[in-house]
Structures are given as C-alpha cells and as structure tokens.
Amino acid sequence: MNINATDKTLTGTPDFREMGEQELMRAEMTIARKYLGRFSWFMLVWWIANLTCWLALWPLTLTGMLPVWAAFPIATLNVILCYLPSHEAQHSNFAKNGRLRWLNELIGYTSTIPLVLPFKIARLTHMEHHTHTNDPELDPDYNVKADSWWHFVLNNIARRQPGRPNDYGRTLERLGNSATVNRAKLEGLAQTLAFWGILCALAWSGHAIEAAAIWWLPRYIGSIYISMMLSWAPHHPMTERGRYRNTRYFDATVGNILSMGMQYHIVHHLHPAIPLNWNGAAFREMRPILEARGCRMETF
Amino acid sequence: MIKAILGKLGPWGPVFFGVGFLAPLIAQTIEKLDRMPPLGLTPVEAGLICGTLLGLAAKLRGRWL
Question: Taking the model in full, what pTM does it have?
C-alpha cells in the first residue's frame, strides 16, 4: 500500500482508514518532516514589528502625538499578539542550539514584555502543559476548563481576584528546587516587581491614564483573549488525554487571523517544532490521516 | 527569605495597588474630566482615599468586583 500522503496525483488518495498504526505514523511524519525545524522569518518579523509598535506607543502618547483613546486598542492588539513569538521560542523553534540560540532566547524574553509573562516560567509551565495536556492535577492550563467561551471569561476574571491560587506557581513548586526552577522563580519575581514598579512610577509622575491605556488594561484584556484562544478553544472540553484526542481542530467563526492560527493547534501538539505559520498547511495535508485516527474536527 | 517576605506582603497587594496605581489614576481622571472632588479635597487626596479604600475592600472581600 502506498503511504506517501503527498503523492496523490500519481497514486490517488490513499485510504488512511485501512492503514495500521505504523503506516499512519509514517504517513504523518512524511508530512511533518516537510515543515519541521524550518526557520520562521514570519514569526521573527511578527516579534520585532509587534514589540516595536508597542514600545513606540509610549513616546507617541506621552508627547501627545497619539491620543490615549487611539493607543488603547493598538496596545491591546499588541498584547494579544505578543505571546506567539515567545511560544515559538519556548519550543526553541528559532534555534535549538548553535550560533542563533541567543536570538531564540532574546525573542522569548522580550516578546512578552507587554504581557509581563516571564519567559522561563512560561517555558517550564508550557512544557508541563504539553506533557500532561488535560490532566486535572498536572496540566497548568487545566483551570481554563469551562462549558462555553463566556463561562471561560467569567471564570478567568474570578481567578484573577486577590488571594486565588496561582496554577503556574503551584506547577513550579511541584517541579522542585532545581537551579532552572529557582532561576525561573527569581526572574519571574524580578519581572513582576519591575512591572508594578514602572506602572506606579508612571502613575505618580502624572502618566497614570497612559499607563492604564497602554499596559495595565491591555494586559488584562489581552491575557484573557490569549488564554481563550490558546488554551480553552483548542482543548475544550478538556475531557480526553490521548495524543490524538487531547487537542482539536476547530472551525473558528472569528477566522484564522483572529483565532491566531489556533484552529490548527492540534498540529502544534503533535509536532511542536513546526512553526505556527506552517501549522495550517501541515494540517490540510494531514487532515485525512488525523480523521482516520479519530481526531476531533469541531467548531468553535 | 524571599518567600517569607512575599508571604507577608502578598496579601496586602490590593492595598499597594490601590495606593500605588489606582490613587493617581483616579486623581488624574478627575483632573482630565475637569471635576471637583467633594469636601474641598484635592484630586490627589480624593484619589488616595478612594484608591486605599478600594484596595482595602478588595483585600478584605477577596475580590475587586
């Protein structure tokens, strides 16, 4: 039986439902290898353009060149867009090692400045999410579980109230006292204190409204949106844990751009080294294989 | 030691936030809207009172909203 999934013109579409486990895996890997390990210039430009735009809002707004009401939606968009380049860096997709490793780490550290998400904590907890997807005890993102998107939003707001348990903190505690974890905690503390320090300094020096419009409120709104699109939507309803069932394809009513490519998040969970901008192409090629495996193809 | 300090200060986070950020935000919003606070208070005084009270209420109730 021909298992070359990409060679349809010569041999016709293979019937993946008749294939065994090994043949399906080989067919899936044949497609994945076309995209694995590519350097994504798209994500590099995304990182630099988004960060530059957000940083530029400060002088533009503080000097009165851009009104605060105009800066607010732009900053919110910047916060929403800032996570995904860091997400690529968390998986070392810009450079696993070698002479460009510094670039990978630079993108990881700086991309999420608007979101104030410490890179090392993000990386450690995200790897735990991949290892334990949908596990109620071990998946740090399990707390996003909700019956609908608006339940998710309400739960998310409730979780941010003072004194509520922090699942990322709990995960770090579980990971123990290794040098990596301690470094992550220290960096996380320093970045969080720096954020609040800068915010208060800006506020007391007469720029509270600008700080609220460019950082504080966008961060709040953006983190809810990111969590909904990256954690809730692709894993909803979070009841299954198998490799081919813990993440779904969903037909996003808001479109691929507004869902930030998360429709194809299943490809990311299967092959995290495929850069985001090729997840869609890889999914379209893999779709018959994923359907044969019983993957979930649903709507938002 | 850091953990102990954070454990002591953490619960007071909403009050720090109320004084450190909400107070000047309220004061500057009052000024921007060209309003006068009651009882002859300056915008900064009104901001400090509101910010501290909101922070204390959030600390005691365990929620902002």
Answer: 0.92
- Shared domain for A188 and A85, answered yes or no, is yes
Torsion over CA: A127, A129, A133, A138 (sign) = positive
Number of domains chain B is built from: 1
User: Does one domain contain both A149 and A132?
Assistant: yes
Domain of A136 in residue numbering reads as 40-221
Instruction: Identify the residue among A161, A199, A216, A224 best suited for mutation to test binding to B, counting B beta carbons within 10 A and taking the highest.
Output: A161
pLDDT tens-digit map of A69-99: 999 999 999 999 999 999 999 999 999 999 9
- For an interface test with A, the pick among B21, B29, B30 (most A C-beta atoms closer than 10 Å) comes out as B21
ipTM for the predicted complex comes to: 0.93
Please, which residues have CB within 8 angstroms of residue A251's CB and are 6 or more apart in sequence? Answer: A263, A297, A298, A299, A300
Report residue A235 CA to chain centroid gap.
Answer: 13
Query: Given the structure tokens 């732009």, which residue do they identify?
Result: A74
